């Protein structure tokens, strides 16, 4: 039904040096797997995507021992989340511990329950409040990565900053990252994010900067997620300044994934908001909830 699927998503040719850097970074962070199958051949529901390498398993056990021994961490992470911390932070127990405490704070602040019903309520409300902003969510079969496409030109940060909406908007953001991480291979390979920036209203920049700082400190900078590519289309020049500022705040491997000035002949909504904004919103919601169902089932069954 959709004219463009995730593997055919519009992506201009990358600079060769940048591409080599990305490949080297991915290779450095990706442990070897015992499986003889090419992981890129695995579909989104293949059980092989839940495998951990022996090294990752060792890291996870060490992190679990430290977390369970800390009485101040009342909201103990599941074994799934501990393994996710190990994949992202490797054997850095101190960083994993800090992340676990920040996760505890975020879950408490935005009343995140990690249940299907809570995810449904928060995502549904978030997609309604930011109508048309979430254009696409799906699985890129060619790269075995999840892809999310957003329209910042439609985004109004004042909606999220309204105290009445914060639980849904920031909590919905948490579940969006959860949906990108339904299994360990998704965490390991990282997500692809595309953003349409044409039509961005710079007059709201002060509120937007406040929102960006809060979103990073409470959600994006807390959630253990790898970003493989973050491509921003039709960006105004001022975004270069924003990136320069953010460079001091975000990890280097995420900063390197951000590409500004990507071009396409027309706005991305012509590809994704089809046949209507409402149809696209429903697709995003259904696909995210499907991923979250797999995530929550794995949370219940997986043990280190």
Automatic annotation (TrEMBL):
SUPFAM superfamilies, per database record: CRAL/TRIO domain (SSF52087)
Compositionally biased tracts (Basic and acidic residues): 15-28
Source domain of life: Eukaryota
Location of region: Disordered: 1-48
InterPro entries linked: CRAL-TRIO_dom_sf
UniProt biased composition (Low complexity): 1-10
Name of the protein in its database record: CRAL-TRIO domain-containing protein
Organism of this sequence: Seminavis robusta
């Amino acid at each position: 039904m959709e004219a463009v699927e995730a593997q055919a998503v519009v992506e201009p040719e990358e600079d060769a040096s940048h591409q080599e850097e990305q490949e080297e970074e991915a290779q450095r962070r990706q442990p070897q797997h015992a499986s003889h199958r090419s992981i890129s051949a695995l579909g989104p529901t293949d059980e092989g995507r839940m495998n951990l390498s022996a090294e990752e398993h060792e890291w996870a056990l060490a992190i679990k021992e430290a977390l369970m021994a800390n009485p101040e961490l009342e909201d103990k992470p599941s074994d799934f989340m501990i393994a996710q911390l190990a994949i992202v932070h490797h054997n850095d127990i101190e960083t994993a511990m800090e992340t676990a405490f920040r996760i505890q704070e975020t879950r408490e602040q935005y009343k995140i329950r990690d249940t299907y019903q809570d995810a449904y309520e928060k995502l549904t409300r978030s997609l309604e409040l930011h109508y048309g902003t979430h254009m696409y969510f799906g699985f890129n079969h060619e790269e075995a990565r999840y892809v999310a496409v957003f329209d910042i030109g439609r985004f109004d940060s004042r909606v999220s900053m309204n105290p009445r909406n914060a639980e849904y908007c920031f909590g919905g953001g948490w579940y969006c990252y959860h949906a990108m991480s339904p299994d360990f291979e998704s965490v390991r390979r990282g997500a692809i994010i595309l953003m349409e920036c044409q039509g961005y209203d710079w007059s709201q920049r002060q509120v937007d900067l406040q929102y960006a700082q809060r979103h990073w400190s409470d959600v994006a900078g807390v959630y253990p997620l790898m970003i493989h590519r973050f491509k921003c289309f039709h960006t105004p020049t001022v975004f270069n300044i924003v990136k320069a500022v953010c460079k001091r705040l975000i990890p280097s491997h995420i900063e390197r994934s951000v590409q500004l000035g990507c071009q396409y002949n027309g706005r991305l909504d012509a590809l994704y908001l089809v046949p209507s904004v409402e149809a696209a919103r429903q697709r995003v919601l259904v696909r995210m909830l499907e991923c979250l169902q797999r995530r929550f089932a794995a949370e219940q069954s997986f043990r280190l």
